[in-house]
Task: structure prediction
Amino acid sequence: MTTATPIVPLTTAQIGKCGELLVQYRLLKHAVEASAMPTDAGIDLVAYSSASRRTVTIQVKANLRAKPGGGKGSMALDWWAPQQSPAELFALVDLESDQVWLFWKDELVRFAQQKPEGRLHLYMYLDAEVRTRGVGKHVREFDAFKIEKRVVETFGQQQRSDTRMFAAVEA
Result:
C-alpha cells in the first residue's frame, strides 16, 4: 500500500503570487506585457500594450478556491480590496478554475456588495440556483468582466502571436 504525500498548503503570499503570475500569463497571451512591482504600494502589476500604447496599473486579488458563503452557505468566490487603492484595474482571480475577472476601480466600487470602512467586498455564488436579493451575485452575471473580453476593451484588438505565425506559414 502506498501512502500519498501530503500536499503542503500554500501561504497567503504564495496564493497572491500565483494570482499575479496567472494574470501576467493571460495578458501576455494577448500581447500585453505586465511587470510585477518590487514593493507593495497597492499596485501589483503594470501592464503595457505596444499596439495601443496604453499602460494600466493593476491590483491582483486571488482566491485558492471557493468557500461557503457566510461560512455555512452556498459555495462562493469572494475578494476584499481597499477602496483607496492607487490601482486603476483590479484583477480578481480564482486559482481553482484559472479564471480572471478585470474591474475598473469605479466598477468594483459599484458592484461590491459590501463596503465596510474603506474596504470593498465582492462575491460571486457559483451555483446559479442560489436565490439572492438583487442582481450581481452569481458568477455568470460577471461574464463580461472575464479577462478574455476585457483585454480587448482595455488594450484594443490584439492579434495573438500564434495567429501571426500561422498566417506567415500559409503565405
Observations:
- Strands lie at 33-36, 45-49, 54-63, 67-68, 75-82, 89-94, 99-104, 119-125.
- Residues 12-28 form the longest helix (17 residues).
